[in-house]
Amino acid sequence: MVELSRELRQVLVRHLVDAGKNSTEIAAELGVSRHTARRDMEAVSTTTDAPAVPDEALGKRPVSAAMIEMTDAMGAHLAVFEKAGQSPQEAVEFALATIALAYRGAWKFQLYPPGMAPRVRVVQLWPYAAGDNRKTIEKA
After folding, report:
1. Residue 65: pLDDT above 60?
2. What is the CA radius of gyration of the chain?
3. Which residues of 43-67 are buried (b: 16+ CB within 10 A; e: fewer)?
4. Cβ neighbours of residue 9 under 8 Å, at least 6 residues apart?
């Protein structure tokens, strides 16, 4: 597993805290100790940065997203999520939230100038653990 920088880990911790996760769940999700998770939770709770989604953006939709043409490639990508039991809505929200989180982290920690699209190089996966309560793919 690739080790995350503290800055990126704290961006992820903020997202997980906002999603209602506790320190034990965050530690398991990120592959760190509960002590590290608690320390990161304290660090992100004391920052005065804007929330992950700015208040002014809640409930607003960019004009460009008002109508998105469904391409064959998008349909094929959505089919992968559906195979894992996610609705198209859940799939799109998850994908957008994941990439938006990376963008915000890149801008917050000045890895890229604000407004410039960062190059996303890798998506980190955690090994499956018995008892994982996420939806699983049915074998055909």
Report:
1. no
2. 17
3. ebeeeeeeebeeeeeeeeeeeeeee
4. 30, 32, 40
- pLDDT value at residue 55: 41
Range 26-32, long-range pairs (CB < 8 A, 24+ positions):
28/129, 29/126, 30/4, 31/1, 31/126
CB neighbours of residue 118 within 10 Å: 15
CA trace torsion 56, 106, 80, 138 (10° rounding): -100
Do 105 and 8 form a contact (C-beta atoms < 8 A)?
yes
pLDDT tier, 129 (very low <50, low <70, confident <90, very high otherwise):
confident
- For residue range 95-119, what is the model confidence (pLDDT) as tens digits? 888 888 888 888 888 888 988 999 8
Helical H runs in 6-62?
6-18, 23-30, 34-45
Q: What is the pLDDT of residue 86?
A: 82
Residue 55 and residue 61: Cα distance in Å, rounded?
Answer: 13
